[in-house]
Recover the amino acids of this structure.
């Protein structure tokens, strides 16, 4: 092998080595970016999830309905009740206020069932006191008619333990027009 | 004189035309109004978050407030819809070893004794505790049934799911 051929061979080897290192560095950068992205989104999700894995609703907005307070210092849970409710047929978007009155010292979680069917057509995340969800999507639109609707309200303590407190099943008549 | 007549005619025609213009503009500025209503709560019922009682039991307040549009002859009925006990039994459990539980009874506003009992078939689900025809506070009684195997100085706990509806 002449000196010139030898030098060419060495240069070729050095170029291959550089290319290999560049590829390795690129892969490492992509991997780090991927891990960072995953960690960021996991962190964002965890911001709304407490240590017990229960998620606070992001759909709830402030609900400042002025409610009388004749219960005095009674340590209780204010449960909202409904009269007749009307929604449109064929639409999955319902406008019903699912509120947790601000005097309460607990989270609310709503589940909505229709008639005898125990499968919920809507489940909320936890709603903080003083907030309400005013619009939500049900799993299936209903046909015209009258139905029994039940709002299953489960309540949880806000002390970080998420202890289950007394709850309520609020029933009403639903008119689908 | 002729001039005055012409001016008067112009004034009269102007008066007639101006309202017509206004009416025409009213007709052409029709506005569509769309209102999408959201169903709002029509009353609130305050139930106990938890109840602490001793051997003799206690009375518990239930309050109805902000009652709106309650039809005549209708009432807000508060019933027992379920309990934390197995098969909705009215029992309180303690973290003892072995696990122990005690039954409890509810004395409704009307004086009805509500309890669950496997041997008699008594059930609590569906039984009315209190009812309201207007805003106000009512009471029901609750007391433990001290019988069977239990331990002292241990908290016995449980929860009730109340049924609330207009009947």
């Amino acid at each position: 092998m002449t000196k010139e051929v030898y030098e060419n061979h060495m240069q070729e080897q050095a170029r291959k080595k550089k290319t290999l290192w560049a590829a390795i560095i690129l892969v490492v950068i992509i991997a780090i970016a991927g891990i960072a992205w995953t960690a960021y989104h996991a962190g964002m999700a965890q911001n709304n999830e407490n240590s017990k894995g229960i998620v606070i609703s992001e759909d709830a907005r402030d609900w400042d309905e002025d409610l009388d307070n004749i219960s005095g210092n009674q340590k209780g849970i204010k449960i909202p009740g409904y009269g007749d409710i009307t929604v449109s047929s064929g639409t999955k978007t319902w406008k019903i206020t699912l509120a947790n009155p601000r005097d309460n010292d607990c989270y609310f979680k709503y589940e909505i069932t229709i008639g005898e069917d125990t499968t919920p057509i809507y489940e909320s995340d936890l709603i903080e006191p003083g907030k309400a969800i005013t619009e939500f999507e049900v799993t299936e639109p209903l046909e015209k008619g009258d139905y029994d609707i039940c709002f299953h309200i489960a309540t949880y303590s806000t002390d970080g333990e998420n202890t289950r407190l007394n709850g309520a099943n609020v029933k009403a008549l639903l008119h689908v027009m | 004189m002729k001039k005055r007549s012409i001016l008067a005619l112009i004034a009269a025609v102007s008066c007639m035309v101006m309202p017509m213009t206004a009416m025409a503009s009213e007709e052409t500025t029709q506005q569509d109004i769309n209102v999408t209503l959201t169903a709002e709560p029509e009353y609130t019922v305050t139930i106990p978050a938890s109840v602490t009682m001793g051997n003799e039991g206690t009375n518990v307040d239930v309050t109805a407030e902000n009652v709106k549009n309650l039809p005549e002859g209708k009432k807000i009925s508060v019933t027992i819809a379920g309990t934390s006990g197995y098969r909705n039994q009215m029992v309180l459990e303690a973290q003892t070893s072995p696990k122990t539980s005690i039954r409890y009874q509810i004395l409704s506003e009307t004086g009805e004794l509500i309890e669950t009992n496997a041997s008699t078939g008594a059930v609590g689900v569906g039984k009315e505790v209190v009812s309201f025809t207007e805003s106000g506070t009512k009471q029901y009684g609750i007391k433990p049934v001290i019988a069977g195997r239990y331990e002292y100085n241990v908290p016995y706990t449980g929860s009730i799911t109340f049924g609330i509806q207009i009947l």
Residues 61-176 of chain A form a domain with the Immunoglobulin-like fold (CATH 2.60.40). The mean pLDDT of chain A is 84.
